[in-house]
Every structure is written in C-alpha cells, then in structure tokens.
C-alpha cells in the first residue's frame, strides 16, 4: 500500500484498525468510543466493523475504565482505552500511578500489562478549561509507564502500533490540535521502535528539542531563523520515557546550544528534565545554559488568552537569541 | 402540604411523580403548587427556552465557541432555582446555564465563559452559584462541603447540587452522596436524567431500576419525578429543600427528562439516536404542558403571554448585545489570580510577557 | 437447592442469612451444605486461625514487620476460597492472607511480603490469586476486568472480589459495582463488614440499612449473611458464584462479622472500642460455632480434631521455618521488572548501583 | 513559652492545636484523625479537646475528603485535611489538580481556598508498597498549589501555622521518617514566611540543595565531608512552590558547584527543576554540571531494598567527587 494523505485522527484510527485485525486480543473502550466513534472520531467505525465485544462504550467513569483495562490485561487482552480529554484522566490517576505503572514490578514480571491509555492532550484548540492540559509530566515522573507522543501522522500510526505491541503499559499522548491536519502516511513503513528520537531537521547553530504539539512550532521557528541566517536543528523526542539521550546529546554536543520547547507549565516538568539531563551530559560542550520555552506556571488559560500562554515561534527565537552568541563566535564560525 | 416524596427507603421501581400530565391535566391526589408559582415558573420556562435558542444562534454566528443546550430540560432548570431561598447555594454543570440565569445571574456573564473570556464569568459568592462544573460529579462534593460548613456554623443554608445521568457513574457521585448522608448535610442532589451522556445511552450507565434507587445505598430518600412537569418538580424539589433545611439531611431526586438538542453544537446526535425517539419527546415538552394547563385553567391570559414573550425577547436582545461586544482580556491577568499574591516565579513570567507585549507594540 | 439469596431487588433491611446459630444449631428452612463440606471447612477454619496466630507471633518476634489479622473473620476467609473452582480468580486485600492460603498459596510466600522481601510473594497467574491489594477498593475494578475479559473470551471463570466495610465508601467500589452490573460480569463482590476501618466505626462509613443494600443502586442482587456462620457463607457465596457462572451477573454479598484483633499489631484498638464490645463477639466465634455443630451432630470425632490440629501445627511450623530463614534479595532486582526490558535509563542506574556495591565489597 | 523538646508529630499537633485555638474556622478532618488521633498520632487529642465539629473522621474516601474541604473553604472555613499516606492521596488527584489548584484562578480570585492538605510522605520507615511515595513532583508541577515540606520540627510547627494562615491551598508534605525524632521547638518564634529557603550550613566548596527528609541526610554528608577536608554547604528549601531562587542561587554562585538531593525518582522531578533553574541562573558560575542524587526511576521498593534506593551520604559524597575538582583548583583554593 502506498503512502496516503490522512489526518492524525485517521492515522490513529487506521492503527487501531490494523492492530485489531492483526491481534484479536486488542480491544478498544472508553467514553463515546463506540457508536459515536469518539468525540474526535478517532475510533470511527470500529464498533461497526469489529462489533461490541471489540469496541465498546463504558459507563462514565475514568478510574473504572483504567481499572477494567488492568483486569482485562491481566486476563490476556490488550486493551486500548481512551480518556476523552487530558484533565479527565485525573480521576484515573490512582489506578495509573498505583497499578498500571507498578503491577509488573509488584509481581516480579509475572503479570505484565500490555495496555495503552490514549489521551488527547495539550491546547491550541480554543477549548474550555480542563480540555487543554499538558499532563505528560505526571506520567513521565511515574516509573513503570512508557510515555509516547507523536508529532507527525506517520508517527501517530507507527508509534501507536508499537505501543499496542509493547508488553508494558503505554500512555499515548495525542496532540489534539494536530488531529485534523493531513499528511502523508505510509502504513507499510517499519514501525519505529519506542524510545528513539528523530532529528527532524539538522542544524549547526543550536538545537531545538521538542515533542508532540511543539515539534511543528519548533520547525516553524527553525524555518524563520533560517531566513535570518541562523541554522537551527530540531529534535523530535517521540518518546519521553524511555528517553533517547544519545540522539539528543549528539545534536547538542554538535551545536553547543539548546532550547527545550513544551506547552506544559515549566516547573518540575518534562522540559526541566530535558534541560537537567542534557546539561549533566553535555556541560562542557555548552556555550550557554539550556533554555526552556514552556507554558507559564498558570492553569491553562481560557481561549482568548491561550496564544499568550503557548510557546510560539517568537518566544522560541527570543530564547535562541539569549544563548550568548556574542561570546562564542568561534563556535558558529 | 402532605409529603409526596418518599422519606424512608425509596421505592426503587416507582413511577415518576407527576402532577400535570402531557395534556396539561392535573393528575393524582397531591394538590398543585399555588397558581402564582406556576405562572412565575412558566415565565421562567419561556426565558430559559429563549436563552437556549439565543445561545444556539450565537454559536452559529461564531460569537460563542460552543453551547451545551438544555432545551427540553427547562422545567428542571427553572424549578431547581426557584425552590431555593436567597441564602442557598446552587452547584450547576456546563449544561445548566438556564438554571444559573434563573437564579438571577446575568446570562451575559454566564455565557462570557463560552466566548472564551475566562473560566467563569460571574461572581460565585455574590450569587451563591458555584462556577459551572466541567469535570463530572466533582462539584457534588463541593456542594456537600458548603452544606456541611453551613450546618457546622448553624446557618440554615441548603445546597442544590446538579448533575446528569452519566455523572452518576463517577466515583465522586458515590462519595458525595455518602458523605452527605453520613453527615446529614443539607444538600439536594438533583440528577437530570436526560437519557444520554453525550452519545452513551442510559442503559450503558446503569441497569438499576432507576437512578433515584441509588439513594437506598446511602440511606437517604430518593425520588423519581417527571422532569418535564414543572409542578411536580417544584413540589418534589421544594420538599427536599425543606427537609434539608429542617435538618432532615440530603435527598436524591432524579428527573425523567430528555435532551432535545445534541450534546453541544459540535455533536452529531444522528450518530446515536433516531429522529423518532426525539419526536416522541416533543409530545412531552415542558413548556407546552405548563402553558396548556395554565391556559385551560384560565391562569394565563393573552396579555400575560405577550408580557412574558416580551421579557424573553428583551433578555435575548440583552444577551445578543452583551455577547456581541468585544471585551478585551488583559494578558497579564494570566498571572493575577493563580495565587492571592503572585509567586516570585509568576512575577518573573509576567514581566517577561509584558516585555514581549511592549516589544510587539513598539 | 432452592435459592436463599435474593435475586431481584434486595430487601435492604433483611436480617442476615443464617444457617447455624451461635449455639451450633441448624436454624431456618434452608438445608445445610453436605457434611463433608462443613468438615473440610472446619479444617480450613482451624488452619486460618492458626495462621493468624502464627503470623501475630512472628510479628512479636520481629520476623514480620506488620500483620493485619483476620481473627474472627476466618469463616469468611475460608468460605470465599472454598466456593471457587480451580479456574476462578480471587482478589484479596491485605487482610485476606488466610483466604489466599485457603486458596492453596503457600503462606510462607504470602507472608514474605510482610517480611519486606517484595511487594507480592506468590505467582498471581499460577494461583489465580491477584496480589493482595493495599489501595482500598482499587482491586475491585481489576476483578471486574478479569471477569469481563473471561466473558468476552467465552470462559466460565468467576471472580471473587474482596473488600472491607470501609472500602465501600471509595469511588472505585461504586465504579466497580456499576461496571460489573452494566456488563453483567461474573463477579462476586464480597464485603467483610468487620465493623471498623482502622478506628472508624461502620456508622461513620454508611447510614444505609446495610451495605448489601447498595446493590439496589446497581441493579444487582445483594445479600447480607452472617459472616461467622460458615454454612451460611458457603451457601450464599456458592449461589452467587453459580449465578455468575451461569451468566446471571454480579452479586454483592455483605458478611456481618467482626475484627477481633486490632487493625494491625501497630494499632491500639483500645482507643476506639471497648473490651465489652469485643467480648460480645467472642460468643459468636466462627470456629466454636462450627465445631459445636459438627460435634453435636457427630460429624467430628476426636480423631478428626486431632488430625486437623496436627495439620494446623504442621502448617505453623512450616511458616515459622520459612519465615525464619534469611532470604537475601538482589539489589539489582530493583531494576529488573519495572519494564519488560529495562530502559536505557534504568540500565544506567543499575550499572551505577552495581558499581557502588562492587566498591563496597572491595 | 520557652523552647521545648518535641517530636515532629508533636510539633505538628501543637501547630494544629494553636491554629484551632486562634481561629475557629480551622477544622481538621480525614481518616482516623478523630478518636484515634491519626495513624501517626499527629491529631492526638484534638477530637477530645475541640469536639466533633472541629476534628472529625470522614467516610473512607480521599476524593471525598478533599472535595469536602473545597466546599467548606468556599463557605468560610479553613480545613486542614490529612491524607493517611502519600499514595492514598492519588484518589484525590482530580480534586487537587482540577479544583484545589484552579478554583481561585477560575473565579478571578473571588473564591480563595485557604485549605491545607497534609500528606505524610517519603520513605525510610520500612513501609509496605504505597506507603512511601515521594509525590511532591505531582503537586509542584500543578500551578496554583503551594508546596511546603519541613525538615526540622521547628519548621514543621512554623510552616504549618503559615500554611493554615495562607489564603491559598497548601500541600503540606510531612517527612514521615522524621515524625518521632525529638528536637527543640520554640512555638513563640516568628512563623517563617512560606517561600524562603534557609542555609542550614554555610559551605565554601559546594552546595547541597535538599528539602524535607533529605535535609538531615545532606547535613550528615556535609559533616562527613568536613572530616575529609571539604566544606559543603546545605540549603533547605522548606518551600518547593514558591521557590526561593535568591537564596539557592546566592549559595551556588559562591561555591560554583551544586548537588541536588531528593528521594523521589529523578525523572521529571523537583530535583530536575532545581538542576535546570540553578543552571539557567548560575551557568557561568558553575565549575561542573549540577548533579542530582535522587531515588532511582523505579517504584518505591520493598523494605529490604529501600536503603539501596534512598539517597544516602555515600552516594551524595560520590556525586560531590564528580564535580570536576581537578580542573578548578583555583576556585577551591
Ligand atoms: C470527569 C469527566 N469525564 C469526562 C468528561 C467529558 N464529558 C463532558 S459531558 C459528558 C457527558 C455527561 O453526561 P451527563 O452526566 O448525562 O450530563 P449531560 O451532558 O447529559 O447533561 C462527558 C463524558 C468530563 N467533562 N468530565
Ligand atoms: C485508598 C486508600 N486509602 C487509605 C488507606 C489506608 N488504610 C489501610 S486499611 C484502612 C481501613 C480499611 O477498612 P476496611 O475497608 O473496613 O477493611 P479492614 O481493614 O477492616 O479489613 C485504611 C484507611 C488505603 N490502604 N488505601
Ligand atoms: Mg445526560
Ligand atoms: Mg473493616
């Protein structure tokens, strides 16, 4: 099958479909994922095509959904559940932190939980409160969870297939503002292994490190910087846990400068981690401190203010400007 | 007035309490509420219906991002506000805009949230109306807390806590009912069972004989009421409020009603329900029913009808004007309310944003 | 056998089902389970009691850090395991060590958790016994998941899900019961109402007529049973298991019992309950009751008693030996099971720890 | 009243008592906090002395407890609730993240939530699973929460008084392994403002940054280092949010070297944040990258292994040793 243009929602739908076809242990459930096909239509047609046993609506209770998935995974299934929006996964937090993340360890590996928790996350859609949280730090900080987030539609397909195949529980974060953008996807392409970052754009002068919804923003910033004569590289993490130190550090060591970009509030965040670990590993290659361009440390704002909150190209380029270029002409020369 | 609502173990399979039937006739033994109350209620229903329609129109015009309509549920919306005293509290959800307005909050303020201004457009304390809750069932616990605090302080406040049928499946619903019962908190839990949680039908939410039957498990009275019968709602909710105020503890009231519109304008209800089903509920429209009753009993003349219609139009014009106006929001307000006093970190971030904005302006 | 348990709407205020009274006499109409079952059960009770005592002694000797005893609840512990078929699953809590052992898991493995070796000492899959749950009520959902998966796969597995009276207040209890009822999952929810959640008495947990009455709100059968009557428990739980296996869906069973010991050895029960209250329950001891019954009906001779006592002593000796032995744990195992394959980050951390340990050894 | 010797549990008990005496809007509730006085006896005697209306047990439901507190705070009270152990606060996560943290902002400050969530946290007591989590990152990452953790008994008293007086919700993390150690406490001392770190020990060569249960460990490490001729300073954060950049950075700028110590798994943690922000602010003063000594990225281990997991003095001193001393003799000279 050749590459086709599809939206990210379609890419995810196709991944679910293909996984359900390939393995009848894969079941999909959550709120409104059945007949409606999900509020973002990500599960469109699965109920019709695979039937009630393979794709079904549950009562409205997120802890229940995740807890049910834990039990079903214990009994040989591979549940893929949807949390309707980021903040609506919080009622399931105890199940996620105390069981999903820990059951494999608790049982010395005798029980593995091959399950995926899909969460549409982050902002940029003018949503009302609780519909735009970037909640990745909560999961990334919890040992035992794999945390994956695609930035492209091809990755959405490939990484979801890999996540469903994983023997471990995966929190699969879908940048909802990318749901309806079309891109080429070749489903026949090799599934990317979880844990590998990718250099979306090589660059000589500084490295932008991003994931999920911030990758296109970083690419746009790099493009703009190019018109101003600065060659910025962009690394797309794809997987937050496990973290690809090798790819990230190789880039940063080459450029000596880095900016981390993420929508979530910056304090004690994934961006903090990236800045800290890149600095630990590349300290003597750095010409300037690793800068973070993140959401402010405030609750996600109402629609009229969200563009002030979100890291945009200007803010990224401002941060790049502060990377003490004047002291280090010899590096960029 | 004799009690219509069960005060002991609710009869789980009982038919909904009804005072006015679908053809506008008074049914059963229980007396109707005073005519003045019904007339006032009818006015409220008209305003609520008009508000639903106006808000829908504003969405189509792009003035509001989204609107979860309560069309078909107006009797619930108005009754739950009307039975409250001034010092009482209302805890609404996103769908209860009409109830909030019926409580006296300016609908422009309420709807400004859906224009994207801020998360809550009105003053909850001044109106004793909590912000409209989005995370389902969570607000029920806050309602119990307000009620429990009132009781500890010796105030006779009652709290009306709203949620939908879907929300009864959430753990917080359970914890809220149980806390209220154990603490005998003056709360009325009012479930508008409109048969759907977005696309998910009631049968997938519960296989209990009714949602009101859940009251048994908490040791509180539970009543199922016809949610399109304003008279029955007023009596049932009024009794529950009176019991709570008298120290009799919480009640769970389930209204049998229907969401006539889609979940929101963004929803496509054709995917999960038939036109026939919707049409069936048109027969049970709460406005028609009350109007027929009032007209037939002579309580509602043409003059009154015209007066109410004018009031509804005036309200709608006010809403159009209020929401049509462009209201700028100050970007620095992002940092203003997160803490009573911004942290040094927020002050720093605010300064950075200010610098950005000044640079852009320059 | 005619059904003893309500299969429709439970009678919320019904007295507990009882077959053998406190003086060992068969009461009521329902026939007793076969004598062989009762004798096997009595043996189980003796072993369970001995295990509770032995574990307590090990705590006092410093061999175990802590032990939540089920003394007084042994009839529940044994009955819930005995009614299960081999392919069924048991979901126990921290207090259900005796039930796990009654299911056939080596008590040394079970208790090794409380010696601090690892979070779960036995193989859950091999035994079809989930790890003992600490976060209250959370495991009930896993039980529903196992049951629902079994049903989807066409297996006739039944899942026995245990929790305490306190845990019924948690949101997860609600969600689990509701999911099970809606999906007609083959689960038996078995609440051991031992009257306390640590220090908090039942009255602060619920003002419902019974915990079994909560079943009404989920549309499932609910039964209150004398939790110190092994015969009644066997019948009630057995029927619930049979109904589940036959596709009849879940049942909520509440056992009226009592926690004779403190919450754990670390707890001081004198702070919240009287000696008198405890003494009252000594009269209702589940062992004495069954022994009296069997002795009086001639089903239990001295020989049998001696044989069972010896089995109990043998088990206790095995437990002492097993838990007396020092079992080293490999520090590198910290990293072994977090993921199926350790992440590069964990491999790095493991190497760092190994280097530390090698340095210490050198 | 002169200083008295008391345990941290007693210091907290005294703070609750004094706050309840000073302000009758202060109410204490949770699981087993009434007649029993709490599983750690922190609320001992409050039920007896203040009565059922001021100190009471709730049904067993953490979301319920926190949600009740939100409502009571909305209605003029100042609830202080106890979560029995760290992991048992997770069922309340939605209430904490979506309401406690956000209600003030949501209402443009019209509703403030003066409430305190007390959480005994962290390990070192040989507890079974779920009783030893270091969960501070979850709260610190959530804008709107104040996150405080005392390391000394005097601070336990003073910071709790300040937290109860705060107009904002405070997550008050109590290092449970310190509950029963006696220290001098002078309750008449001025209440320390929230947001100020304190230099527990000045030091010339490197700065150890710690909070809560890790402060005594850092001090012990500094003591041991002194015998080996190295002068290490120790900063006790006391408050994670707000963060005292001034005090921390002043120390690090002086020493040019820093090690952050925390029990929580390091990934996307408070320690990451400290490392990242100290580096951003002190980059050109640093002789070596800021090192983190934290718990491993694994679930909190069973008792037999916890000493391998917890950051101890050896591990701290090992980290200090890696701070590239050989390249920078001129700084330490
Ligand atoms: C905790 C939580 N989960 C999911 C959602 C998303 N959601 C918004 S409305 C809704 C359906 C609610 O149904 P119901 O309670 O019946 O209220 P109705 O919309 O019918 O008034 C859902 C699932 C949410 N708001 N909160
Ligand atoms: C979610 C959660 N909250 C709190 C605790 C702490 N805790 C352990 S046992 C217990 C009491 C449980 O009482 P109950 O459910 O009646 O069971 P029992 O101990 O009586 O068998 C509490 C509060 C916990 N384990 N999990
Ligand atoms: Mg509904
Ligand atoms: Mg109990």
Automatic annotation (TrEMBL), chains A, D:
Protein keywords: Oxidoreductase, Thiamine pyrophosphate
SUPFAM superfamilies (UniProt xref): Thiamin diphosphate-binding fold (THDP-binding), TK C-terminal domain-like
UniProt domain Transketolase-like pyrimidine-binding: residue ranges: 6-181
Pfam families cross-referenced by the UniProt entry: Transket_pyr, Transketolase_C
Necessary cofactors: thiamine diphosphate
Entry protein name: Alpha-ketoacid dehydrogenase subunit beta
Phylogenetic placement of the source organism: Bacteria, Bacillati, Actinomycetota, Actinomycetes, Pseudonocardiales
From TrEMBL, chains B, C:
Domain Dehydrogenase E1 component: 47-314
Cofactor: thiamine diphosphate
UniProt keyword Oxidoreductase present: yes
Keywords, comma-separated and alphabetical: Oxidoreductase, Thiamine pyrophosphate
Domain of life: Bacteria
Keyword ATP-binding: no
Name of the featured protein: Thiamine pyrophosphate-dependent enzyme
The species this protein was found in: Amycolatopsis tucumanensis
